[in-house]
Amino acid sequence: MRQVLFPTLARMDYKKYIPGSPSVSVIGMGTWQLGAAADWKPLSEKDAIHMVEEVLNEGVTFFDTAPNYGQGASEERLGKALSHTDRSKVILNTKFGHTVDGNIDFDPGKIRRSIEGSLRRLQTDYLDSVLFHNPPAELLNGNRAPEHYELLEKLKAEGKIRAYGASVDTYEEMKVFLDTTNGQVVEAFFNILHQDTGRAFEQAEAQGVAVIAKIPLDSGWLSGKYGSQSTFRGVRSRWSQADIEKRAALVEAVEEILAPGFRLPQAALAFCMANDAVSTVIPGSGSLAQLRSNLRSLDKALPHDLIRKLQLFYQEEVQPLGLPW
User: Fold this and answer.
1) Is the pTM of this model over 0.90?
2) What percent of the chain has pLDDT over 90?
3) Which domains does the chain have, with CATH numbers?
């Protein structure tokens, strides 16, 4: 069994996740980059495994993955990295609907096969949570997709999964899921520039539904590395020049609100963690340096008045823009 060391950069905090699971680290690890995705600098398997070992050393217990990340490579590498770790102390969250071969298929007859494939690649006999991976809106309504939810309940009863949920981008999606299903986890698009899903957080907390905050650095914009002259390729090429300039101006405004003493990426993560409904935040880390930078958000909590200023900034300046993802 691999020994997990005490954190070396900051004191990790932990929150409740789902019944039966250990407490979850407030910063988790998104593992898209472990599969050497085309939009990121490719990681070798050795480097990917080393990165997972490093986050374990820092007290991270939550890992988010999916079958289509690197065509299964993310799950495989994560499974190898965790193979000598006490399974009962880590939380594994994966998804279904976006397949290993790059297709999108939410057929209820494929759910079991997808989950069993993830179990095999992750080298485990159960998953803490499994999510609909940004599904069509109708599948978030439990009354309109009974076959899906009946099967997920069966998989829970069999012990293959402890909980199920959905990855969503909007308040409307999250609200429907909370109102019509027994799901216990929601992975919500939430950050300083995209606070829409936050309107459903109070309901999630009241229902005991864990919230995973995804894309907390707004695809890199809240890391401070992009500006009005930045250019993009791959999935980020979706932004027009007008979108780029608009986002750059908003980031500058956020930095002015933060004032001295708060660096943008750490403040962005701290903003998400400050919400009581959020169990864990999953920034992507393309390198060990970025990983350590993300962990430094634990060093300094945002004061309430600063959080309120960022909420008002979103309501008054950002929300009216209808900022595209």
Assistant:
1) yes
2) 82
3) 14-221+270-302 (3.20.20.100)
